[in-house]
Specification:
By secondary structure, the chain is mainly alpha-helical. Helix 2 runs antiparallel to helix 3. It contains eight helices and two strands, in the order ααααααβαβα. It has a two-stranded antiparallel sheet.
Length: 162
C-alpha cells in the first residue's frame, strides 16, 4: 500500500504492465479507504482518499499519453489518421482547401487568363497649388486623375520619366 503521492516523473519510465498493476493496487487501496470512511474512520483518511484519486488520475494520464504516442508512430506513414489523432483546429479550417487544391487552375481559367490578361493602369496625378483659405473641394486639392490603359513597354517608359 502506498502512503505518499505518486510523482509523474516516476511513471514515465515504467512499461504498460507495471502501470496497470500499479493502477489496480491504487484502486483497491482507494476502495478500502472508502469503506473505512463509511464505517467511521478518522479524518486523516479523507486526505489520503484525495491523494489516491489524484494518483490514479496521474497513472491513467501516463497510460493514455504513451498509448497515443505509440498510435502516432504507427499511423505516421499511413494515408489517413484516426479522428482523435488529427489536429483539432476549427471546423472552417478543417474544411478549407489545401494549398495544392487552391493552386490548381482549370483549363477554362487558363484560357481566360491567356485571352483576357489583367490590364495594367498608370495613375497620373497633377497637383494644384492650394490657396491660403484651404482647398474648396477634393478636385482642387488633388487635381485631375487620369486612368490610361497601357502595356508593359509604356509602364517602363513612365517609370523612366519619373
Amino acid at each position: 500500500m502506498s502512503t505518499t503521492k505518486i510523482k509523474t516523473t516516476q511513471l514515465w519510465g515504467k512499461n504498460k504492465d507495471d502501470l496497470k498493476k500499479q493502477l489496480v493496487d491504487l484502486k483497491t487501496e482507494l476502495a478500502q479507504l472508502r469503506t473505512q470512511k463509511v464505517a467511521g474512520g478518522a479524518n486523516s483518511k479523507l486526505t489520503k482518499i484525495h491523494d489516491l484519486r489524484k494518483s490514479v488520475a496521474r497513472v491513467l494520464t501516463v497510460i493514455n499519453a504513451t498509448q497515443r504516442s505509440q498510435l502516432r508512430i504507427f499511423y505516421k506513414k499511413k494515408k489517413f489518421l484516426p479522428l482523435d489523432l488529427r489536429p483539432k483546429k476549427t471546423r472552417a479550417m478543417r474544411r478549407r482547401l489545401t494549398k495544392h487544391e487552391a493552386s490548381i487552375v482549370s483549363e477554362k481559367q487558363k484560357k481566360r487568363q491567356m485571352h483576357f490578361p489583367q490590364r495594367k493602369y498608370a495613375v497620373k496625378v497633377r497637383w494644384l497649388c492650394m490657396s491660403s483659405r484651404g482647398p474648396a473641394s477634393v478636385k482642387q486639392k488633388f487635381g485631375n486623375i487620369l486612368r490610361i490603359p497601357i502595356d508593359a513597354a509604356d509602364l517602363v517608359h513612365l517609370q523612366a520619366e519619373a
